[in-house]
Amino acid sequence: MQLPPMKCTVSTIQQELIAAAVEAQEVLKRAGQQTAWLVFILDAGNASFYVYGGSEPLPQPLDPGLAFCEDELTAGEFSEIAAYQDQITAETEIPDAPYLFELEDGQLEQVAASDAALNQRIAEIGVAAMQTLSPLPAFPHEHARLFAFPAFQAAIHTRGCQIIFADDEVACHGERLETFIGPPAAQALITLDAPDSLRYEERLGCYTGKVEIGGVLVTLMLYTGEEDDLSPALRRAREVLADFAAYHLRAEAYAVQELLPLKNEHWREDLGDDEEPPLTPEQFTSRMTLEALVFYAEGDVTFYYNDGDMFYGHTIELVMDAAGEFFHADIPG
Length: 333
Prior knowledge:
Elements (H helix, E strand, L loop, with lengths): L6 E3 H21 L6 E7 L4 E7 L17 E6 L1 H8 L12 E4 L5 E4 L3 H17 L13 E5 L3 E5 L4 E6 H5 L26 E3 L4 E8 L2 E7 L8 H12 L1 H27 L10 H6 L2 E7 L5 E6 L9 E5 L5 E5 L3
Parallel strand pairs: 1-5, 2-9, 12-13
Antiparallel strand pairs: 2-3, 3-4, 5-6, 7-8, 8-9, 10-11, 11-12, 13-14, 14-15, 15-16
Helix pairs in contact: 1-3
């Protein structure tokens, strides 16, 4: 027997996560404690999740492994995932097809058929669900902001409670969830799949951090908008990083189009490098190394590449607009 693709209902997942959050809060309340933080460890591939929490402020930086040193407040099951898995036997053929998530309007959303993608989507659903808990004293809604990266981690920071969703693999392997509370005008708890969290740099006027892309540690810079709101730049960063391979190829193609002629014609002939053979597009892009990504609230993204000494150490700068079209190339520095 071949099963159809697995289908989940977003509202059902929200209800199951909310019920667990309320139960965890009740456990702490019965112990005479207020809820300061909750960590949801997601193991959706096994239809399960676990909730840890405490009454003291979270340490900074936060290691998800610390959650396991606390008592488990409650555990939950994703009922639709469990029901689907109950149908699987040794003879069952499981389709290699995206999972389907039914939204509130009945539309179906596709999610890649992997545990990581499943946990990531549920983390996003969970953060949205927690925002509905504002009537509860432990979950005030004011100034709540969502920060979700394709690292299977998401977080809300409110004045009353910190709520984190973490992939079980991330948590079990002890990767750090760095936390940082920004300046008063832009308070946020930020989590990244990176050695360092985003940190506000007063000198630069932006948030900075690091993320590993293709084995290379790349600097991230995110600028808030006029209202000192970091979320637009974070959403843009998440979009780009989630499909970075495609954006990277487009950036390289644009660099070849705009800068390879400059290298082969001007830099070879006018600067006395005419004994050097012209570079092919493949040779040109092979010498480019990504160093930094800059995200703006308006949606523009600037890619900075090391030039591999093709332009005597000048940086390769490529700018993409909010629609994903590259419109500017330069070699500053």
